[in-house]
């Protein structure tokens, strides 16, 4: 954590009620917490203070206070899990990738992300490398070294650095993928990658599958589309029947 981030978090804690401080402190330490864990933490806090406030109200109250400090607890949903992540909304937060890494390292990161996402850009080389489920083999990512104008050994070291810094994570013994924190923090600088029309977050395929409208080519997360299409069969963008 940088000194600036630490000052932001200390400032946020100082202006919150004690019971909210406890939950925010947990977010500061972990950055990302699954919904059921948040519920358990809030239940413990409620028992201590004799309250019955829902976890959603805790987060709403915390956000209403810390938004003035450019901080927010945002939700992130996958096909089967619901997370909450503490995000710094300052403009320089989303530019950390480009300020903490050189141009070649940043290029490698973006090329790696493209392996996670089937972006239908008719790039035959990319199409052959796209992996299922928003992840890719470590060896495939390392082999992007030439396109990033770095050596294979440097690519391997850079990918490890991205893992240590919390942008990438191991997914099994040979695969890597984006961390949940990266999906939220990097949204502003990954605008060239496909985003869900409904939640506006980067679309990571689930088992290689992503919902796409054949009429206008917008994309939806499977979990977003499942909720949306309970009310209509039409595309949220072009309003034609979603195909």
From TrEMBL:
One GO biological process term: double-strand break repair via homologous recombination
E.C. no: 2.3.2.27
Gene3D superfamilies: 3.90.1150.220, Winged helix-like DNA-binding domain superfamily/Winged helix DNA-binding domain, Zinc/RING finger domain, C3HC4 (zinc finger)
One Gene Ontology cellular component: Smc5-Smc6 complex
Catalytic activity: S-ubiquitinyl-[E2 ubiquitin-conjugating enzyme]-L-cysteine + [acceptor protein]-L-lysine = [E2 ubiquitin-conjugating enzyme]-L-cysteine + N(6)-ubiquitinyl-[acceptor protein]-L-lysine
Record keywords, A-Z: DNA damage, DNA recombination, DNA repair, Metal-binding, Nucleus, Transferase, Ubl conjugation pathway, Zinc, Zinc-finger
Residue ranges annotated for the Non-structural maintenance of chromosomes element 1 RING C4HC3-type domain, each copy included: 196-238
Subunit-structure text: Component of the Smc5-Smc6 complex.
Annotated protein name in UniProt: Non-structural maintenance of chromosomes element 1 homolog
Organism from which the protein derives: Heterostelium pallidum (strain ATCC 26659 / Pp 5 / PN500) (Cellular slime mold)
